[in-house]
Write a structure and sequence with these properties.
Elements lengths: L2 H26 L6 H12 L1 E4 L2 E4 H29 L7 H20 L3 H24 L5
Antiparallel strand pairs: 1-2
Length: 145
C-alpha cells in the first residue's frame, strides 16, 4: 500500500471511531432536553414489552441499540487502526479498505435516507477516505496481485 493510501485509511479509521464517540456523546451528553423530547422519552419508558419472561421499555430498546451502534463504530475504527499498524507497509490493504468503504457507504446511505445532517457530513468524509485508500491501494499494487 502506498503511503497516501495508508494515510487515507488511517484518517477514515480514526473518523469511524470518532463518529462512535460523537454518537455516544449525542445520546447521553445532551444536557437539558426540550419538552417535546422529554415527553416522547417518557412515553417510550411507559410502553412496556414482555418477551421471554422479561419486561423492558421501548426506551430501553432504543438506548441499547444506540449504545451498540456507538460501540461498533468505535470498535471498527480501532480495529482498522490496529490492523494497519501491525501489518508491514508493503502489505496491500485494498480488501480491508474496500470493505470499510462499503460499510461507510451503507451508513452514509442510511443517514441520507433518514435526513440526518451530522452523520451525512461525517460519513461522507469517512467514506471518501476509505474509497481513496481503496483506489490508491489497487493502483499501487503490482499487476496480478
Amino acid at each position: 500500500m502506498n503511503n497516501r493510501a495508508r494515510i487515507f485509511f488511517v484518517v477514515g479509521s480514526a473518523g469511524l471511531a470518532i463518529v462512535g464517540l460523537l454518537h455516544m456523546w449525542g445520546q447521553f451528553g445532551n444536557g437539558d432536553r426540550p419538552f417535546a423530547r422529554a415527553a416522547i422519552e417518557s412515553a417510550m419508558r411507559a410502553y412496556k414489552i414482555e418477551s421471554m419472561g422479561m419486561s423492558f421499555s421501548l426506551m430501553d430498546v432504543t438506548q441499547s441499540w444506540g449504545v451498540s451502534f456507538g460501540i461498533l463504530l468505535i470498535y471498527g475504527g480501532v480495529q482498522n487502526l490496529v490492523a494497519v499498524s501491525l501489518l508491514p507497509r508493503s502489505t496491500g490493504l485494498a480488501a480491508l479498505a474496500g470493505c470499510s468503504a462499503l460499510c461507510a457507504g451503507v451508513l452514509l446511505g442510511l443517514a441520507i435516507a433518514y435526513h440526518i445532517a451530522p452523520p451525512i457530513i461525517i460519513f461522507s468524509v469517512v467514506f471518501l477516505c476509505f474509497a481513496a485508500a481503496t483506489v490508491l491501494s489497487v493502483l499501487s499494487s503490482p499487476a496480478g496481485q
